[in-house]
Every structure is written in C-alpha cells, then in structure tokens.
Amino acid sequence: MTFRQFAFLNVFRNKRLYIAYFLSSMFTVMVFFTFANFAFHPTLTDADMNANATKGMLAAGAVIYVFSFFFILYSMSSFLQSRKKEFGLLMMQGMSNPQIRWMVFLENMIIGFLATILGMGLGLIFSKVILMIAENVLVLQGSLNFYFPVAALVITFLSFILLFFVISIFVTFVLRTNKLVSLIKGGEKGKSEPKASLLLTLLAVLLLGSGYTIALIAEGPTVVFAMFPVMALVIVGTYLLFTQISVFVVRKLKSSRTLFWKKTNMLLFSDLSHRMKDNARAFFMVAIISTVAFSAIGTLVGFNSLLTKGMKEANPISFTYTYDDNEDKPDVEAVLDKHDLEAKTADVPLADFEQDGVEKMIVTPEIYNKIAELAGEDTIDVAKDEVAYVPSPQANMLPEDESNEDEVILADGTTKKVTEDNIPNSSILPAVTSYFIVGESVYDELPEPADVNNYAAWEVVDGSQDDLVAAGKELEEIDPAIMAIDKVVYDTNAIWGPVMFVGLFIGIVFFVSAGSFLYFRLYTDLDDDKEKFAAISKIGLTTGEMNKVISKQIALLFFAPIIVAIIHGAVALTALSHLFDYSLVYESFLVLGSFLVIQIIYFVFVRYFYIRQVRKYVL
Q1: What pLDDT, on a 0 to 100 scale, did the predictor assign at position 558?
Q2: 96: Cβ contacts below 8 Å, ≥ 6 apart
Q3: 346-357 pLDDT per residue, tens
Q4: What gap in Å lies between CA 61 and CA 213, rounded to an integer?
Q5: Could you report the per-residue pLDDT of 402-425, keeping only the tens digit for each?
Q6: Cα(290)–Cα(338) distance, integer angstroms
Q7: Does residue 181 have a pLDDT over 70?
Q8: pLDDT of the residue at 358
Q9: How far apart, in whole angstroms, are the C-alpha atoms of residue 27 and residue 522?
Q10: Which of 104, 286, 388, 419 has the maximal Cβ count within 10 Å?
Q11: For residue 545, pLDDT beyond 70
C-alpha cells in the first residue's frame, strides 16, 4: 500500500470525524456555485437586465468565499486537535513529522476535492428548483431557464481547489506534533477547573445590561449612532458571559448540596466545570456568528415588511390621482376594463387653508368617510361644531411644526380647539403632514382656501395581482402622477429582491457554519466520553441515566449559545423597530422562531447519533 493509498483510506476510516467538515464544506461549495450560477445566467447578463441582481450575486460569492476560508481553517484545526492519539501511534510505528504533515495535506486535499465535486453536483441537480425560487424572489421580468453553467463550474472548481490547497499548505506548516508522550496521552491529561473572577463577572453583567439598555431606549436616528457602541459592549460582554458568568453559575450550582447530590447532577456539573474553558470559546464564536445571521436576516425581512406592508398601509387604495380643475382627468376606467379589473371609485375635493403661516389640509367628515368607505376602513363621526386632529402618517420620519396641532383658525381670527385626536386611519387621505377633520358649521367659518385640488381614487375589488401591476405600468405611462401602489410595491421588490436573496443565503451559511462549530466541539470529546461512561457504568450507572446526562450536556452545548444569540437578535430587531417606528414583532418571531426550530431538529439528530456511538462502546 502506497502512502497516498494510506491517506485516502485514512479519510474513510475517520469518516465520523470528517463528516461534519465534509458536509459543511460541500454545502459551502454548493451555495457558492449557486451564486455563480445566477451571476452568469444569460437572463441576468443581458444588457440592462437587473444589474443589481448580478452585482449582488458576485458580492455574495466573494463574502462566502472569504468566510469559507476561515471556516474551513477552523474546522481543520478542530479536527486535528482530536487526532493527537492517532498521530502519537503513527509516530510509534515509525512515521516522521514530515510524513505526518504530508499525510494531513493529502487528506485535506482529498476531502476538498470530493466536497467541491459533490457540491457542484448537488448544485446542478437542484439548480432548476433554486432558479425557480430565485425567479420569484428576484422579481425578474425574464425567466431563469435551466442552462449548463460552464463558467460557474470552472470558477467554483478552481476557486475551492485553490482554497483547500492554500489551507492544506498553511495547516502543514503550523501543525505541531509535540512530544510523543503528550500525543499518546491526548486528552487524558487532566484539566484544571477554571475559576471565575467576581470582578469580571460583574463587568460582564454591566456590559450586557448597558448594551441592552442603550439599544432598547434609543429611538429614531439615535439608534444608528448607538449601534457601534452597543456592538462593542455586547461582544465583550458575551465573551465574559461564557468565560466568567457561566463558570460562576456552575460553581454556585455545585456548592448547593441539595442540587449537586441529586441523582446524576454530580456527574453533569463536574463535567461542565472542567470543560467550561474549552466550551466557552466555542459558545462565544457560535453566539456571535448566530447573532450576525439572526440580525442580518431579521433586518432584511423587517426592511422587506417595512417597504411592502408599510407602503400598502400608507397607501391603502389601489389607484389614486390628485389633479386641479384645469387638468383633464385620465380615463383610468378604460385601462382597468382593459385589464379585467373591477373597481369602486370616488372623487372628492381637498382644500388647504393657511393656519398661522402654515398650509394645512382641512376636510369635512363626509369627504373623509367617502374615501374611508372606498378603502374598507372605519369611518369617523365628527359633530358639526367639533374639530378632529389627524397626525401625519410620516410623523416619525419628517420633522413637523407642532405649534398648530391643537386648534384651527377661523376666518374672523378666532380659534376652535381640537376635540378629538383618535382617528382610525390617517393614511386614508394623501397628506404628507397632519390635517384636520372639522364639522360642517366649523368648515363654513373657515377663510378662503389657499389651494384646492381634486382627489380621485379607484379601489379594485376583483382582479389578479398581475393585472393590477400591468394596469399600473400602463397608467404610469399615461400620467406619472397616478399612484398605482401595487406597481410601486412590485418595483420595490424588483430592487430589494436581490438584496433579500443574497442576505438570506449568507445568513443561512453563517448559521450552518455555527452548527458545524458545535458539532466539532461535541465530537472532540467523544473518545473521552466513551472512556468515562464505560468506567462509570461499571459502578452502577444505568443506560437510561447515561442517556439523560449526555442529553443534558448536548442540550447545553447546542442551546446555550443559540439562546444568547436569540436574545441578542431580539434586542437588535427591537432597536431596528425603534429606528423606523414600525413594529417588527411578527418578523422577529418568524425569523428567530424558525432558527430555533432548525436548531431543535439538529439537536435531535446529533443527540441520537452521539448517544448511539457512546452506547456501542459502553455496551
């Protein structure tokens, strides 16, 4: 058997340890190939055909490629750390240090080659499905038909073979085989129990508390200015959380005799206290990477909701048009009929009155209710001598003079106080600033209006979304002043779609990588766990008790950093909602809940296979 054959067979003999490294690398290659497939698609490379999509794909590919380098490098270092005993045995058999380095180089190149080939293969197999999804997400006018992506295959293959080659060279240079005795003992060398500093523990609480407080109390533009200080506080606080607070909590739990001596808690807490130092680094890395993924995806989903749902809420009527008496109103009904759209319509006058040097729109309840009924919104009841104040629908975005919000000025110079300020929907009428709804008797006492316009609205009650967009395009060509909200949302999605698609993929890559870090951290201790539980089972530990202890250990490993990341992400998304004064509760729950469910499924599978490995050895 040649040395190359030995390295090749060694990969398959260590497939349990290599599997997470291999699958994660393969997934990364597949994602990179997917972006390359999009970037070089004929539909996207046509002149003036969604240049944003092409740029986004190329940028995402670059980000994934750079991240892949550090991820694979970390994966290799974790894998080599768990092979100390193996290296020691090989040295006892006569293998030299250069030969061990050469073996590691060959093994990594074999894994890299297989991961690259299979990643591209899976990308080709699922490319049509992914192209169909992308076609809808990217809101492209042309279709993303299947094609054989020669350029994407060549670039992906060369990029990742080069990446694995560079990493293999780097690892062989930094690989230290140490003394033979140290290698043979491997993980048998006892680990001292880490100690927590009370001062650093309090500092961790202070940093996290300060970061959360600043993020939650900041509103409007101050959220942007507070972002970087909050990030610094939370990152340092998270590191101290796992290196200090976790150790402090475990030591306190061990000091409780009632809890420590209950069933198998002695075994669980003793193991936790000695592994806390190693776990803390992995916890910190996973928590920060997951927080980045959660925050990025949550922000993208939140922006998408703000841009689409927010637009629809601010413009609840399908088509609107503001014009004066000197203009000819376009024949909107003819265009709607052409596209088989059935609509209700209303046409009302809107007058602006000078109020203390500022022009304010003032309408009667009849005008407001006519448009409200058209939009299917609640109507308002204002008595003849009463005044209702309607705040600006963009009050949090645009500064506004607040000096005349509580009264209207009549023609004789007297004022009428506002009696109602709880309006069902301020977006019913097209006002960029606040306005008033006054009773008929008050309206008659107002001075001559400074400006009068007519407001026409058409609310579609029957028709498809595609026809709404098509009609909006045609009406915009007739008169750009016509507001077709469905067409505006469609155009927004066309611009935002590539950003959403790229961000979601990158976030998923980060999350999968975080899961792989946990897998490596868990399986690094597998051999120690086998020996430990085999020894303890001889003095009475049952299989059921062993399963419970292992399940608790894996649950802590998988959920401690993720729960911290979810809390970080929830605070970040709450701050984002304060920035735009737009609730992101649903979006936050959707994103964070989805990732938590994925983590639970991942935990169930890993727990099953890990327990099976230990039981095979023990029994």
Answers
A1: 87
A2: none
A3: 999 999 998 888
A4: 36
A5: 555 788 899 988 989 888 766 656
A6: 50
A7: no
A8: 85
A9: 20
A10: 286
A11: yes
Torsion angle, alpha carbons of 189, 193, 197, 201, to 10: 110
The band of 190, judged by pLDDT with boundaries at 50, 70 and 90, is very low
Per-residue exposure over 270-290, b if at least 16 CB sit within 10 Å of its own CB, e if not: ebbbbbbbebbebbbbbbbbb
Taking every pair of C-alpha atoms in the chain, what is the biggest distance, in angstroms?
108
What angle do helix axes 222-240 and 265-314 make, rounded to 10 degrees?
170
How many Cβ atoms are within 10 Å of 98's Cβ, its own excluded?
Answer: 9
d(CA 248, CA 273): 9
Alpha helices in 428-464 (DSSP H): 440-444
What are the tens digits of pLDDT across the range 198-249?
A: 888 899 999 999 999 999 998 888 888 888 899 899 999 999 888 888 878 7
* Partner residues linked to 15 by β-bridges: none
State residue 81's pLDDT score: 66
**Gap between the Cα atoms of 206 and 199, Å rounded:** 10
**Separation CA 240–CA 200 (nearest Å):** 7
User: What is the spatial distance between Cα 360 and Cα 450, in angstroms, rounded to a whole number?
Assistant: 9
For 344-402, the DSSP string reads EEEEEEEEEEEETTEEEEEE-HHHHHHHHHHHTPPP----TT-EEEE--TTTTTS----
CA distances from 608 to 267, 555, 593, 600, 615 (A): 20, 12, 23, 12, 11
- pTM, whole model, 2 decimals? 0.73
Token duo for residue 309:
């749902």
Could you read off the pLDDT of 316-355 as tens digits, one per residue?
899 999 988 777 788 899 999 999 999 999 999 999 998 8
Question: Is residue 156 within 8 Å of residue 30, measured between CB atoms?
Answer: no
Cα separation, 505 vs 56, in Å, equals: 11
Burial class (CB in 10 A: 0-12, 13-18, 19+), 597: exposed
Confidence of residue 47 (pLDDT cuts 50, 70, 90): very low
| Cα–Cα nearest to 48, from 147, 140, 144, 135 | 140
Q: Which amino acid is at 335?
A: V
Select from 602, 613, 548, 79 the least CA-distant residue to 271: 548
The token pair that represents 382 in the structure block:
């204002």
CA distance 608 to 589: 28
